[in-house]
Specification:
Blueprint lengths: L8 H86 L2 H11 L5 E9 L2 E8 L2 H13 L3 E14 L2 E12 L2 E3 L5 E3 L1
Antiparallel strand pairs: 1-2, 2-4, 3-4, 5-6
Amino acid sequence: MANINLLPWREAQRRDRNRTTFTICVAMWIAAACAVLLAKSYVDSMINYQESRNSYLTSEINALSKVIREIEDLKSKRDALLARMEVIQALQSNRSQIVHVFDDLVTKLPKGVFYDNISKRSNTLVISGKAQSNGRVSALMRNLDSSEWFDNSSLKVVDILDDNGALVSKFNVEVKEERQEKNDDGVEAVR
């Protein structure tokens, strides 16, 4: 007798295909999930690596900021020291100037003129005194103008006073003090 398959072979074939399709879909989902997990772990490791680099850079930036602050402090200290050195050099170069000024005040004083008070405001000397006549006051001003230590003498006040029966001229003269500085050759230069 002939062998007849009465089983629904198409149903079985469809179930086999569905089972194969389902297995392939599950395998694809598992492969996709694995690929997503691998990509996520790779991206996370890259993010961690970049964060570690960023933290290293931040720590180095902080260290360099401290070094920069120290350098700025050193620069300010250096500038202060240079300013002090300049003051000291100016004092050293002008320390004999006061001697020359007082010497010229004495040597340029004509006979019949007397100083009462000498005061200094910045680089201007204010001289007050008495003279036997106005001509002697003008002689004092000419002498001071001819000095290499003084310049621009100007008469501010002149009054005639009676001093024990003698007429005297009381005067106030302002004269600028010229700074004498020595250059590298040791020669004094007017400034």
